[in-house]
Every structure is written in structure tokens, then in C-alpha cells.
Amino acid sequence: MPDLLLELFSEEIPARMQAKAADDLRRMVTDKLVAEGLVYEGAKAFATPRRLALTVHGIPARQPDLKTERRGPKIGAADAAVQGFLKATGLTSLDEAKIQRDPKGDFYIALIEKPGRDAIDVLAEILPVIIRTFPWPKSMRWGARSGKPGSLSWVRPLHAITATFGPETEEPDIVKFSVDGIETGQTTYGHRFMAPAAISVRRFEDYEAKLKAAKVILDPQARKDIIFADAKELTFAQGFELVEDQVLLDEVSGLVEWPVVMMGSFEAEYLAIPDEVIRATIRNNQKCFVVKDPKTGKLTNKFVLTANIEAPDGGKTIVAGNERVIRPRLSDAKFFYETDLKTKLEDRLPKFEQIVFHKKLGTQAERIERITRLAAEIAPLVGADVAKAKRAAQLAKADLLTEVVGEFPEVQGLMGKYYALAQGEDASVAVACEDHYKPQGPSDRVPTDPVSIAVALADKLDTLVGFWAIDEKPTGSKDPYALRRAALGVIRLITENGLRLSLMKMAASALAALSLKPADAQKLPSDLLAFFADRLKVQLREQGARHDLVDAVFALGGQDDLLMIVRRVEALGKFLESEDGKNLLAGIKRASNILGIEEKKDKRTFDGAPGAALYGLGEEKALAKAIGEVTAEASAAVAKEDFAAAMSAMAKLRPPVDAFFEKVRVNDEDAKVRENRLKLLNEIRSATRAVADFSKIQD
Hints:
Distance between the termini: 48 Å
Helix content: 40-55%
Number of strands: 20
Largest sheet: 7 strands, mixed
Number of helices: 25
Low-confidence stretches: none
Shape: flat
Strand content: 5-15%
């Protein structure tokens, strides 16, 4: 079966756009092929700085023929309707139509046969549409062709389109079309400097091999592997270790077509700057990797760069050029760092009075004051020193006004720690300046120092309660203030540190610190609690736990101790994996279903204790006795927070519940007996609510 080779050759495509562009090209072409009845065997897309390429193999040479029936007017319909039917279906007369018998009347039916087209003709039709509608995040129009302005909008000027199609055993044909005056062909170009000549290509294997010979590595992953392996080998050979950086590796591989790894150096005096600042300087300005001493773990005065050329002088000029750029950048960073050290963190705080955090939530200074008050309240609950928690909360945001953080925002918090240590602050206070932002994602480290925990919780809760109070909650996929991340951070801080805290009380304290008065302040904490429940469900689902069990526990109400909720969910999950748990759940569901039907029928509930005098069968008595014993035992276990014991107690209900449904007819002919038995079923439901609302659990 024929294969397609498509290449769009242009000026340099920004590295950040390449991976998505390759995926978009593959998706758009293959979706169109399938829509046209051309089901392919496989497809793969590639990107380099100067080209997007796609290979699709196993495409049928021709579309299948299509046969469709089209229903027309009734027999005897008006002539205008008949003529319209004939014109739409391409029939010359009604003699060519079939008649379909129908109880509502007989109708004309046209059998329309649409012969399939050659796949190459379909490609010539769909590919230019895809090119013209390609979803670049940013694009441009350029130049004039034949005296007319260019009409194509592309990320950078497009120079050539290669499009070939044909079976492996034959010479492929060119898929002929043009876009903005660019005619398709089978000519591409190699490396801009080392092999710029035109290259004639036939199919993908030939194309990839010829590009490699012309100093172009087509596959982005292959370029990444080369850069990573060569960088590690180069640093190891000199007794150093590469500081790995996957994000930078992804970017650098998109800047070169023929990666050549080299090592440069800078003056050792710059090692007085914190390692993170050196890394940010070199990474952001020159897209280079930093190198560390494996014995000390500290950075060395070396860096690794990736060139796009095999230089005649072995790269000496390239290395010298990078060193020449990095040197003044490090000099600036050193100046910023030394300048920052001259001003104490607390002396920067007055400037926050002129900086608005949010127009409805006041200035940054007001927010810092709120966080300080809340951290002081939380500190004794998490075992932190109150004075240290207050000091850390006061200083935690101060580094936002420093020169280094202004230049490199990604080191905020971290620089606060360095500056706090430099001015003699307690180690816990300094660490909290960095860690109060954490965790910032599901894989980020969770602070364990009590002072850091107190400030981190205060910071996140102030954010959540504040934006909840002004009704700036996340909606759909929109979360401009990262409130979902803040809630997940609170959950991880509490659960991973094994903390016993009341979310409702902390939220109420945060609300009290706000100067504004929300319209529904009483509802705020519980509304926010529901948001935490949703975040907890997401986290547990990602960990492989059942999110419906969270609903079953939260449905009991008054549950705002996240640690206990998680432990209860864990115990419930283990219980439901057992045979007793599965069968008891089935029995409870059956009882709930019967109750639901009968309550709806009678338009009442069956609350209240059943009467022992109305028990006519031994199974009723046995179930009633078991419910009493289990309720007491499970409630006592829950009170001791021994949820495993509570589940074991629940398991004792299984035999009498099974026996009850096997031997007892609930809807007895005697109305009083029926009511009593329905009350007994309600007792089952009530008893199990000591551990969870089983109605929320999915079968």
C-alpha cells in the first residue's frame, strides 16, 4: 500500500512550538484521511528548527466506492418536489428511482453510487487546506509573490513543500498542489551551513537517510539522546557531573539540527553567587547546562553548550563567544546579589503598602499581616514555635522586592532563605521563606518543618478564603489564581504530615482576618469544604483510590479533618475488597432500594424504632439484635478512630442481613408488619452510617 511523505520547509520554528506543531500535523492529516475513507496503518511526525515532516504508511491507493439511498417525495407529489429530487440525486427521470412501500404512503428512493477517487487526488485536495488552516499560536505573513502580497499565514516564511505518494516498490508520484505560489515537489535542503544544497527525496526512509548525510537529525528524540549522552560523557571525562534539566534539554534539541556538545568555563569568583542564581543566569540567557562537582554537590565554573555546527576550529570560537556573553550576565547577577544583601528583608516591607494584591483584597502589606496572624494561630496546632512562625510569615514575601528575584522570578522563596540566613535569622524561619510556597504541584516536595507548615498553610488558606469571599472561584478549566493548586497543597501538607486540623476552623479564622464582608459569610467555610472534597477525590483517584468512597465519608457531614477522612476512606476501601464487604454492600443497597420505592409509594419515611412485639420470624429478631450490637461496637471504634475495627464490626451484619432477605417478605399483607419491617431496613441504613453513607458507593 502507498505511503505519504510530507515536509514543510521554512525559516526557524521556535523550539517551544515544534512538538505541538508536529502532533497537530499528524492529527490533522490522519483525521482527514479517515474522514475520506482512507484508513491508514501508521503515522509519525517530526520537527526540526527548519521543518515539519510527516510520514503516513499503509494508505489505500483509492477510496472505497460508496452506495447510499436517498428518500424522495411520495408518489403523486407536486412536480416541483419531484424535479428537486431528480436534480439533487442526479437522476434523469423517476424511472431510475425505486419505490419504497410505507404505511404512510409509497415513496421514491434514489440509489446513489459514488465511485471512490484516487488517494493522491484526495491528498492534493486536503493537504493545502490543512496548511492554510494550521493552528500556529503565532504566525506571520511575509513578502510578495508575483507582485501580490503573500496570503499564507505561517509561523515563519515557508520556502518549500515536499509531498510524495506511492508504494514502496515503485517510484512515488508528487502530490501536486500549490500554496501561496509554492509548488509541491520532492526537493528539500540539508543543514543551513554544513550542507545547504538541494536534496531530491523519494520516500521517508530515503528522506531521513539523505537528511542525516546532509547533517540533519530529523527525530527530536534522537537529538535529545545525542545531547544528553555527549554532555554526560564530556563532563564525566573531566571529573564533573552534568546537572540534568529535562525542560532545557527539550528546548535545546529544538534549536539545533546537528547537535554538537562543547564545554565552556567562567571565572571562579562567580561561584560566590548561590548555585540556583548561576544556573538561572546561564540557563535563561544562553540555554546552557551547568556542571557540578560530584564530591561536594556544588556547581563548578563550567557549563555545557550545544552548537548547531561542526566548527573548523573544533568549536573554540563558539565556546569563547558563549563565555563572552555569560561573563557579564554573571557579573550582573553577582552585583544584584551583593546589592540585595545590603538591605534587610524587614526593611523592604513598607514598599508592600503601595503594591495591590487584589483590588478587593487589599495590598500585599495587608495580606502579609493576615498571613502572619493566621500562621500564629496555626503554629501551636502543628507543633511550631509561634514567634518563629510569625517572623517567617512577616519575611516570607520580602524577597519579591529584591533585584535577583526581579531578574529571575523562578528563584523567589529560595532567595528569601539565602537572605534570611545571611542576616542571621533562625534556620526554621529561613527555610520557611522558601518552603511556604510548597507544594506547588502533585510531585513537588512537601515541607516537614513545623514553622514552614504553619506559614505554608496560612499562605494558601488566605488565598483560598479571600478569593472565595469575593466570588472568584474556579470555573470549568479556568483557574486564574491557581486555587485548585492551593487546595491540593493544603491537603498534602495535612495528610502527608499526619496533622489533625479542622479545615472549618482555619477557614473561619482566615475569613475573620479579611476586612471585607462577603454576602454569605456563614456559607463560606462549608462551600470551601466541598471544594476541598473535590480536590481530595482527584488526588485519591490519581493514587488509585476510589473517589466514590470520599463521597461516602463526606456525606456523613461535619467531616473537615482531612487526615481522618483519608484514613476512613482507606479502611472502607480495604473492607469493600473483602467478600464480607462486597456482600454487605449488596444487602445495604437492596435495603435502600426497597426503602426508596416504598417511601415514594407511601409518601413518607420509615423513621423510628421498630417494635419488637411485631417480630414474627427469627430472622427479624436476629437482625434487630445484630444491628444493636454492631451499632454500638462500630460507634465505639469510630470514636477511638479505629476505622479498621469499625469495618470489622460492620462485617458482622452480613449473615443476618443475608438471612433476612432470604427468609423474610418485607411487603407483608399486614400493614403493621410491613411498616415494622421497613423500619428495620431503615435501621440497617442508619447503623452503617456510623462509618459511611453506603448509598454513595458505586457497585
